[in-house]
Specification:
CATH class of the largest domain: Mainly Alpha
Structural class: alpha+beta
Organism: Micromonospora andamanensis
Region (Disordered): 720-743
Strand order of the largest sheet: 17-18-19
CATH superfamily of the largest domain: Intergrase catalytic core
Shape: extended
Distance between the termini: 124 Å
Protein name: Site-specific recombinase XerD
Number of domains: 7
Number of helices: 29
CATH architecture of the largest domain: Orthogonal Bundle
Strand content: 5-15%
Radius of gyration: 38 Å
Helix content: 25-40%
CATH topology of the largest domain: hpI Integrase, Chain A
Length: 743
Amino acid sequence: MLTSASSDLPLTLVHIAHALHESGFPDVVLPACLDCQATVPQLRNVVDGGRVCDTCLRLRQRVACSACGALVRPGPAVRADGLCRPCRSAARPVETCAGCGRQATITHRQADGTGLCQRCHRAPAGSCSRCGAVGRVYQRGDDPLCRACYTAPHLACARCGRVRPVHARSDDGPVCSSCHQRPLRKCGHCGAIARWHTRPTNGQPGYCNACHRRPVQPCASCGQQRPVSRHKAADGAFTCDTCRARPATCTFCGRHRLINVRWPIGAACSGCYQRIRRAPQPCPRCHQHRILIGLDHIGRRLCAGCADLDYDYTCRRCGASGSFPVDRTCYRCLAQARIHTLIAVEGEDVTARQALAEALLAAGTGEAVWRWLRPDGPTAALVTAIVDANMPLTHDLLDALPQQQALHRLRAVLVQHGVLPARAEQLERIEPWLEQQLTTLNAAHAHLVRTWARWTLHRRARQRLARRPFTGGAAHYQRACLTAAIRLLTWIDGYHLTLADLTQADVDRWRVEHPHEYSYLAKEFLRWARRRHLVGDVTITPRQRDHNPDALTEDEHWHHLRRALTDTTLPLDVRTASSLNLLYGMTLARISRLHTAEVLREAAAGDTHTYLLLGKHRLRLAPAVASLLHAQITAAARHPNAANAGPRWIFPGGLPGTHVAALHRKLARHQMPRAAHGRATALINLAAQLPPPLLVDLLGINIDTANQWARHASPDWGIYLTTRPAPTPTPGQKPRQARRADR
């Protein structure tokens, strides 16, 4: 490894090779960069085939400007609009700045109407320490400089060619801070080969970062002579490590914790610091959404700019305030850069890719999108596969990709923002799932199951879409039927039988060997095969149904209903769904599909009533249930997966634009009764008080269903009289017939 000049080796061996070469070992060959063949000690960037230096890595990461075609670095140089900085600046209107006199973009208007550029607006007024000119000055170290003296040391970098501040002088010429790499030296204390933190001065050797000796002076907190360093939580004062790690009382949460920063509004711990940074508010002075950390003379909270504080919590790209994880850049700008890296908006299909980029960016908050599209995540791989396919974005293209939860979420986002048309997603997912399940069957049996599913199950489901939606429960039933048929055919193959040779005894034996409850659903496949004369007269015995529904007792019913209406510790969606189920007998499938257009508010006789549309019927809700429903609508509007406009789901689901799919699990988790038991209890109580026609108008159910619940609520007492046993006579009492004969 040390003699091959290859850079495909760990970074530690690169450092060892340089140390041995400097110590005089002639056989050691320094590893070289794959692109420029430079033998620099810092080859920390791993690519396919070896390592590259920082400059070559930046050259590899360059993207083309959508206007001029120049290759520039991504990130701050190119934004989501695809323009480089010169092209973006050329597209903006410019004026003469009143501060520096140059033609620039105006960011601030003064009282007299003149404009200032961004640099002049932020720069304070003062006297230049070099030429003595009075005006706006810029700080370089401890010296205030005017604009002319401040920009004087800006030269063309000898490595990247950009005109930037000179960071160091090399053999090639001046270099900027990005291109400069501090050489590896020997630490004067520990002897390690590392970068110097301090240079040799006054006879003292150079020290690495680990051995750097901090100044010893009185601590600003405890006053003792200790090694100190600046700490932002102490307003930049020099504090020791002991005081820095000493907990204090947080002003905002009141807990005794380590203080992360001390603002004029109080000391904030790490949790409160992040919470305040993530919640910008309108500043009462500048009326912009900023982080309010300062105070005015009357105690109002102000932003850092209005309070003249040395804090800058604005994004350096878009100027928005918030929490910045990388390089003072907000999550939204990071998400835009990540989307731009995944989707190069160029070529012929620019409009489609731009729509895809806008849909991805609008999928949630900036932080959520940034984490959702992480480079090593499944969604980024799916977006890359879509772009590399170089085909129109359709549902068929997504169906050809691996079916996983990340794909379902990506499809829901594209449908919600109009990139893809809406479809019966639960039904369309079954066919790709079925193709994966049929890999275990032989070709003949797989063709039978595929034909049955496509021309019977799916065709029947598509015909019903005009009348009712295809729910998750219906999809679960179809998958169960297909799974039962696949298991039956697999069992037939195991016994070397054919479907035509199947007898009733074989079917009964399979039911005994497979007592799973889904095995009963194989009757659907056998019924279809018998009609097409593919199998003999075989069937699966129907299960006996219990016509007596499991209902709650009166005490249980009122106990759970009281919990749903008054217990504030329960989640709001659990309380709302349980109230509708226990009071009006609505199924969870119907409750989960409620949207805001089905809730009406009307004023009558000086009072406001809430109505719920159930098909063609209107149900007037009780005031307690109506208040819960309106609170749930307000909470659903803040849900990240809620629709941007139009009717919204009252119970939004985990995927964008969908309703909740597993509400029964959440009810069971909070000890609420099963929805079937609550529905039975509510309908029995209503049917005992109302006639069936009125029950149909009230709940929108079928008249046959209403008659069945009415018969169950009011049984035929004649049957009870005929089955009642005759009373047993007491000792010495004659039977009833003898007493009648005596009379």
